[in-house]
Amino acid sequence: xxxxxxxxxxxxxxxxxxxxxxxxxxxxxxxxxxxxxxxxxxxxxxxxxxxxxxxxxxxxxxxxxxxxxxxxxxxxxxxxxxxxxxxxxxxxxxxxxxxxxxxxxxxxxxxxxxxxxxxxxxxxxxxxxxxxxxxxxxxxxxxxxxxxxxxxxxxxxxxxxxxxxxxxxxxxxxxxxxxxxxxxxxxxxxxxxxxxxxxxxxxxxxxxxxxxxxxxxxxxxxxxxxxxxxxxxxx
Length: 235
Hints:
The structure is a single chain. This protein is mostly helical. The protein has a single domain, classed as Rhomboid-like fold. It has helices at 18-35, 42-49, 53-56, 74-77, 85-106, 108-129, 141-154, 174-191, 199-216; strands at residues 2-6, 159-164, 168-173. A hairpin with a 3-residue loop joins strand 2 (159-164) and strand 3 (168-173). Helix 5 (85-106) crosses helix 7 (141-154) and helix 7 runs antiparallel to helix 8. The termini are far apart.
């Protein structure tokens, strides 16, 4: 639908969004190591570290040699695995454009907690909606959906520049861009059943992000400001 490239919103409280950059680096490093064969067979790795609802709820068990960590930990490890370059690039683009401003509004420690809780919530909703599924859920999409929700609440008037339908340059407000994105996730989760995309993880991460943002943001960061933020110099 829409591939974000830039938002033009500068940081107000931080010099640099270290946690956002560290998360992007971690995802890229894991992907490169996985594709280079340094972490073993990719399919086995996805089964061992991805979230499998049936395993999480004890409806099924992994084959011998795959159960290398407790099933609840896969709620975290699955967030750092991706199914291909397009999957990784899409997630990291959203995190790059929106994550730094959300981190700025929360502070590094609270942003890391926020990112983690959003990802876990997204994975849990996905698992609850299909508890007998034995397909592994991988990717940072749930956590990034939480970031999208926070950005929508904090910067609804910000102008987002990106590519619509992969090649049409477009500049649109965050309210419309991210709001329509969320509506599409709900529609897809309710209507598309045979798919490799974890739409329920996106919905769960978004709802968790929306609920957590008022509690984890800085007091100075207003919710639902009507205009794009002013540009503040960083001391």
